[in-house]
Amino acid sequence: MADVLFQRQKFRQLILYIAERTADDPSFEDTHLNKALYWSDFDGYRRLGHPVTGARYFKLQFGPAAKPLLPIRDELADDGLVEIQEPPPGQPRTRKTIPRQSADRSLFSEDELRLIDEVIERLRGQTAGRVSETAHDESAGWNLVDMYDDIPYRTALISSDPPSEETLAKGRELAARLGW
């Protein structure tokens, strides 16, 4: 696949769309938003042949993160399109993005919206810790790069599923035949 281009306006609208669809879920906070953005783009690359926004993602301790998330979300807040809800004093440092305007859905195809909705539903009701764990388990790219390095989109094509018993049997057969 050709070079991926970042669609800044679409990324802005994706943040708004995810915030809008998860406004009723108090557990859907920064970690969830980051992973929803990541899986929307990387699942889009794998399933649709292109990422939804083309944002760059990099490896952080708690999983993949969108490089443009914080500056663009702050921009959306400055524009009055979202509110960044801070945690109550004494609570863990988790923020939630609250939409103040609906997203422009016309920027997304029906397939993209369906994929994004699937990603949101996968994350709904999970703890931030569980979401991070899942990202570590399911992101081949996150596991392949060094801390703070970009995660290439092509790594979305690498399965993190364990091999089937049939595949293992074929491997053992091949190893025996070759004397490994």
Search tags:
180 residues; mainly alpha; two-stranded antiparallel ribbon; 9% strand; elongated
Strand content: 5-15%
Give unreliable regions as ranges. none
Ends apart, CA distance between termini:
36 Å
Tell me the overall shape: elongated
Question: How do the SSEs run, as a string of H and E?
Answer: HHEEHEEHHHH
The helix content, as a percent range, equals: 40-55%
Explain what the structure shows.
- The chain has 180 residues and is mainly alpha-helical.
- The protein has one domain (8-178).
- Helix content is 48%, strand content 9%.
- The chain contains 7 helices and 4 strands; from the N terminus they run ααββαββαααα.
- The protein has helices spanning 8-21, 30-48, 69-78, 110-123, 128-138, 140-144, 165-178, and strands spanning 57-60, 63-66, 82-85, 96-99.
- The strands form 2 sheets. It has a two-stranded antiparallel sheet. The protein has a two-stranded antiparallel ribbon with strand order 3-4.
- The radius of gyration is 18 Å and the shape is elongated.
- The two termini are 36 Å apart.
- 34% of the residues are buried.
